[in-house]
Amino acid sequence: MLNIYAMQSQSRELRKIDEITPGAWLNLENPSDKELEEVAEKTGVGEDMLKAALDEEERARIETDDGNTLIIVDIPVIDDSAEWYVYSTLPLGIITAGDYFITVCLRETAVLGDFIKGRVRNFDANKRTRFIYQILYLNAIKFLHCLKQIDKTSMRVQQTLHRSMKNKELIQLLDLEKALVYFSTSLNSNQIVIDRLRAMSTIKHYEDDDEILDDVIVENKQAIEMATIYRDIMSGTMDAFASVISNNQNTVMKFLAAITIILTIPTIIASIWGMNVGVPFAGTVWGFWAVIGIIVAVTVPVLIIMIKKRMF
């Protein structure tokens, strides 16, 4: 989908337009080949540069080609189609090409949605450098928000696991741990892009925007630290639950072994007196009770020994 936006300097009101015109913001969300061709033709940006952010495995980076600058950063995304929220990351491409500002992503994102809905203060689509910084800042904030949600979800799942061990909760913890690995890797890649962005000469830097860039660096580093801490905690939690599950399994196996031993004693004694040969007490009225007495006399001491050894 191709959405085109423009903003007049006087009104600061972002409006949607139908034609690609100089000064416009072109937002591509999972675009078709026809839309990519149209944008490439009107803006002069190569299709390879436009398609770079459409690869889910594309790494965060900055590159320039024929005066056009491509900035790719990873953004957090949430898949709510599953039984629980699944967190992951996707690349977001930001392209500055002369009079055009282009963003490319595989799906609609909350990062850009806040700009479209007018939720970002001091947003001016005509100030391209500030726009880039604000996207990076909002992206870091979204990462922090997702990390807090992951931590809350993890605590809730752990409380459920304390009551009963179920595969569902364990799989959910594994998904959260995987999301933290993705987040940590993406945030570190984004930090490299941010550091390089500050030193780039192809991007015009303004003193008024330096404060925003400083905020971007602070928030992104905070997100990196949070992701690292949560990932370490989650890894330790998974190891602890693995140990608990293994211990519970050993306890159950020990209990079943003890029950098997107790049941084996009467079975052996009864089998001996069930043979088709002459056995003691055969033909006597009290023979049955004698055998029962032998079973009890042997089983009870064994049971007491097992209780003392805490096999039950």
3D architecture notes:
The structure is a single chain. The protein is of the alpha+beta class and 312 residues long. 58% of the residues lie in helices and 16% in strands. It has seven helices and seven strands. Helix 4 runs antiparallel to helix 5 (167-199), helix 4 (128-163) packs parallel to helix 6 and helix 5 packs antiparallel against helix 6. It starts with a strand and ends with a helix.
What labels describe this entry?
312 residues, alpha+beta, 7 helices
Strand order of the largest sheet: 2-1-3-7-6-5-4
What gap, in angstroms, lies between the N and C termini? 65 Å
Q: Strand share of the residues?
A: 15-25%
> Poorly predicted ranges (pLDDT <50, ≥5 residues)?
none
Tally the beta strands. 7
Individual helix count:
7
Q: Which class best fits the helix and strand makeup? A: alpha+beta
Oligomer: single chain
Q: How much helix, percentage-wise, in residues?
A: 55-70%
Could you report the average pLDDT, rounded to the nearest whole number?
86
Shape: rod-shaped
Order of helices and strands: EEEHHEEEEHHHHH
Query: What would you report as the Rg, rounded to the nearest angstrom?
Result: 34 Å
Largest sheet: 7 strands, mixed
Care to give the gist of this entry?
Helices cover 58% and strands 16% of the residues. By secondary structure, the chain is α+β, with helices and mostly antiparallel strands. The radius of gyration is 34 Å and the shape is rod-shaped.
Give me the secondary-structure topology.
Blueprint (H helix, E strand, L loop, with lengths): L1 E6 L6 E4 L7 E5 L3 H11 L3 H5 L9 E5 L2 E12 L6 E12 L2 E6 L4 H7 L11 H36 L3 H33 L7 H67 L13 H22 L4
Parallel strand pairs: 3-7
Antiparallel strand pairs: 1-2, 1-3, 4-5, 5-6, 6-7
Helix pairs in contact: 4-5, 4-6, 5-6, 6-7
